[in-house]
Amino acid sequence: MTSSLTIGFLPLVDACLPILAREHGFAEEEGLSLTLVRDMSWATVLDRLLYGHTDAAHMVAPLAISTSLGQGLGRGRPAQALAVPFVLGLNGNAITMRPELAHRIGEPGRLGDPSRVGAALRVVALERLAAGNPLRFGVVHRHSSHNCMLRYWLAACGIRPDRDVEITTVAPPFCADALELGEVDAICVGEPWNSVAVEAGAGEIVLATAQIWRRGVEKVLALREPLLADRRDQIEALIRALIKAGRHFVDPRNWDDNATILARPEYLDGSSMLIKRAISDRLLLARGGSLVDFPDFMFQYREAANFPWVSQAEWLYTQMVRWDGLAFDADDARKVAQVFRPDVYRSALIGTSEPLPGASSKVEGSIFQTTTVGTQQGAMTLESNRFFDGGVFDPLDPQGYLARLG
Question: What is the edge-to-edge ordering of all strands in the sheet holding 136-139?
Fold first, then answer.
């Protein structure tokens, strides 16, 4: 018997796993029929999910957390508990700037060092602020990893978000247009929209967000908690299908076919060439330049990339406290820790060939070299998960972490 699930998504390369689970029959193997609903903004993806028009969604991780806390939903809308049993990918975003700004602060022909680029950007930001024309950055949603990463980088480089620079929201498919029209000076967005801006000559890629946090959580599979309770078996089947899609996605032999599928009008409706670049960790930083290899620019499988580490959710909560004017609340912190559901992930994959971590949290930013970790099942090594400034987040002391950030 086949069960049906409807999944909302935005036209981004990191929507790949649900798409490929459907197109390659991995969902069907697990007894599922997937219907995919494309939207143009994260606000619409969220609304479809909350009103029951979709069963699950490709979603920026902080939005699942803020929704569960009732932050950013609008006046009169109560908190709605979401569950995240699967991470759709790590990294995959970039910071792209208008050419004149990129030339002034960047390192032409290669991705810059975050500290050096940030120091140069601070000079420009303060000049523009003094002239009454502050730099403006576009991010895809207030509650997005893009916003968290951008703010973390700016602040660590001595640039005060919302005071020295402005940060506004631009839906991903319109980021290149906003850059070209001069509505923003820089964007932080996922692929293929950085590359679209580069191909149009509207911008140049200066940094990858993986340079800010090497293993930063990005998109997740989010669903309403009551649906998870009612359809647990189907969600676990979906997790197994997504794991198969991830394994297929990272195999170089499949890059061409997968890029062609993702480029189709019903999915990304874009260039298969640009999509393949992202899949293969290759970026064109500036029009007319050479392709640059950046290993693990996108990270969809390996090293428990799909495991919903509770510590990642807790780090995102500290950034909400930091930038949304919230006071740290122990009850909210407990709610956040319950949004990511490693128990569901484990239940879905126990007895398969997939390695399962022995822990559900880790100290984020603490791994600087390849490290063997304890597992519940299989063998696993983790590579560097460092923050560019050497910061370390211990999930046992979030308040101490916030105090150190100032």
Answer: 166-169, 136-139, 186-190, 93-97, 204-208
Mean pLDDT confidence for 1-15 = 96
Question: SS3 for 150?
Answer: helix
3-state class of 68 per DSSP? helix
First to last CA, the chain: 55
For the segment 267-303, what is each residue's pLDDT rounded down to a tens digit? 999 999 999 999 999 999 999 999 999 999 999 999 9
What is the residue extent of each domain of the chain?
A: 3-89+216-268+299-349, 93-215+283-292, 356-405
Write down the pTM of the prediction: 0.97
- The string over 81-94, giving b where at least 16 C-beta atoms fall within 10 Å of a residue's C-beta and e elsewhere, is bbbbbbbbbbbbbb
Residue 9 is encoded by which pair of tokens?
Answer: 């998504």
Residue 194 has pLDDT above 80, yes or no: yes
* Omega within 30 of 0 (cis) for the link into 192: yes
Q: What is the pLDDT of residue 72?
A: 66
Fold held by 3-89+216-268+299-349: D-Maltodextrin-Binding Protein; domain 2 (3.40.190)
One fold for 3-89+216-268+299-349 and 93-215+283-292 = yes
Is the sign of the CA dihedral 257, 177, 38, 87 positive or negative? positive
- The H or E element that residue 82 is part of is strand 82-91
Helix (H, G, I), strand (E, B) or coil at 119: helix
Query: How many whole angstroms from its chain centre is CA 354?
Result: 23
Residue 74 has pLDDT above 80, yes or no: no
Pair of tokens at residue 230: 């009612």
Pairing of strands 136-139, 204-208: unpaired
In this predicted structure, the answer to whether residue 75 has a pLDDT above a threshold of 80 is: no
For residues 86-92, average pLDDT? 96
CATH no. for 93-215+283-292: 3.40.190.10
